[in-house]
Amino acid sequence: MARVYHADLYGLREAKYAALNARHVSTTAWQELQPRTPQYLFVPRDAALEDEYNLGWKLTGIMPVHSVGIVTARDSLTIQWTREDVWRVVNDFASLPVEDARARYALGPDARDWKVELAQADVRDSGPDGTNIVPILYRPFDIRFTYYTGRTRGFLCMPRPEVMGHMRRGRNLALVLPRRVETQGPWAHIACTASLPEHVAVSAKTIDNVFPLYAYLPAGKTTTPPPRLLPEEEPWAADPNFSRDLIGKVARRIGLEFSNVHLADRRLLFGPEDVFHYIYAIVHSPTYRTRYAEFLKSDFPRIPFTSDRDLFRKLCGLGRELVAYHLLEAPALEQVVPRFPVRGDDTVAKGYPRYLPPGRVHINKDQYFDGVPPEVWEFHVGGYQVCQKWLKDRRGRTLSFEALTHYQKIAVALQQTIRLMGQIDGSIPGWPIR
After folding, report:
1. How many Cβ atoms are within 10 Å of 5's Cβ, its own excluded?
2. All structural domains of the chain with their residue ranges
3. Which of 127, 134, 124, 125 has its CA nearest to residue 161?
4. Cα separation of 302 and 392, whole Å?
5. How many CB atoms lie within 10 A of CB 197?
6. Rounded to an integer, what distance in angstroms lies between the CA atom of residue 391 and that of residue 40?
7. pTM passes above 0.85
8. CA–CA separation, 377 vs 30, rounded Å?
9. Read out DSSP for 45-77?
10. HEC string of 108-142?
11. How many C-beta atoms lie closer than 10 Å to residue 255's C-beta?
12. Using the 8-state DSSP alphabet, how is residue 184 labeled?
């Protein structure tokens, strides 16, 4: 049987070259590994901590209906700032000869799964129809618009109708996160959305997956997962996208009955959104993220479920607050904290945004948001520094009043996220969760 050893070296290139030149295979401080099923990773891992982590439920086992996010293949064509922009683009695009459309929208050569001719045919066959214009989560807190027909290899390359259909058929929420991440710091790769998510909305380097709260099935059916495509004329019913086995075990652990119809007596019942909010709270615990950082990098999160009813309720409430802030729906967001005190042309200039401590985010030489703490400016969701990324993507654009207000709300939401993450940690008496 082969023996596996590991050593690593971090730092700047010159320092690493110097260290390697000074070492030999016989003088390197090797660590013998014992790779474990199912992944057999060739990196050091704390076996006892891994066993503790594996007691939790893997997210794919909790929420069986899921898929990767929408792959457009041509963002510059398919993702637009407003509904009006989408409507103008799809009508113009569909009316042009193939090569004229390719040139006007700088689409480049056709790919295997996206072709100009097929994209135009999809738009024409669908109407065009204004009801196909939908919001899309493009980046954290960055909602744009696209034209969604659900046809694979159409206007959108991979629209994932088997899951995105559930996001369109009625009120819904979804978790958005990648399976694996490339990061040296604490894991932070998750968001929630009520819109259709693009496939790198959270992770800049790997593909995000989408886990909807509800699967919309024909009324009277509760089969999970549902058929891939269902006739639109049928009446729909929301079926919680949770493993029946998981729900049964949680109900027994906390001594409550699960109801997906109503929660008239919350002392005795818990529902789908409670489970969603509990999960969202757990994955925003700073201790959870640092304690299990090595395992979170390589696969979907595992969620520990408490047997403490009061703790369950507390975490559900904190998760509910987080979701409201991340959807920018919390009432407290109307009490805008960052100010935008200087009048001007409201344009994000080249080379901006720039952060000037203790709290100014400049969009150009003269205009700035004031009252953005350093920890808010530095806050990351997945692979993105949110306050910087949102403005950087708008360089050269004039910000409307709505856009200025939106950015102010983002800053408040992140500040409240930091507060709530601390409260989540403070609510959990110890790890592992019991």
Report:
1. 12
2. 1-44, 67-211, 236-330, 333-420
3. 134
4. 34
5. 27
6. 42
7. yes
8. 40
9. --HHHHHHHTTSEEHHHH----EE-BB-S-HHH
10. CCCCCCCCHHHHHHHHHHCCCCHHHEEEEEEECCE
11. 10
12. S
Cβ contacts of 55 within 8 Å, gap of 6 or more: 302, 304, 432
Residue 414, token pair as written in the block: 């992140």
Torsion of CA 7, 13, 15, 21, to 10 degrees: 70
- What the block records as the tokens of 352 is 């901006």
Is the omega angle on the peptide bond into residue 358 within 30 degrees of 0, that is, cis? yes
At 304, which amino acid appears?
A: P
- Structure-token match 């949102």, residue found: 390
Q: How many CB atoms lie within 10 A of CB 388?
A: 18
- Over its length of 434 residues, how does the chain's per-residue pLDDT go in tens digits? 667 765 777 677 776 777 677 676 666 666 555 566 665 555 666 677 999 999 999 999 999 999 999 999 999 999 999 999 999 999 999 999 999 999 999 999 999 999 999 999 999 999 999 999 999 999 999 999 999 999 999 999 999 999 999 999 989 999 999 999 976 678 999 999 999 999 999 998 899 999 999 999 876 555 444 433 344 445 678 899 999 999 999 999 999 999 987 665 677 899 999 999 999 999 999 999 999 999 999 999 999 999 999 999 999 999 999 999 999 999 999 887 899 999 999 999 999 999 999 999 999 999 999 999 999 999 999 999 999 999 999 999 999 999 999 999 999 999 999 999 999 999 999 999 99
Place of tokens 């969760």: 433
Are 281 and 433 within 8 A, CB to CB?
no
One-letter amino acid of 34: Q
SS3 354: strand
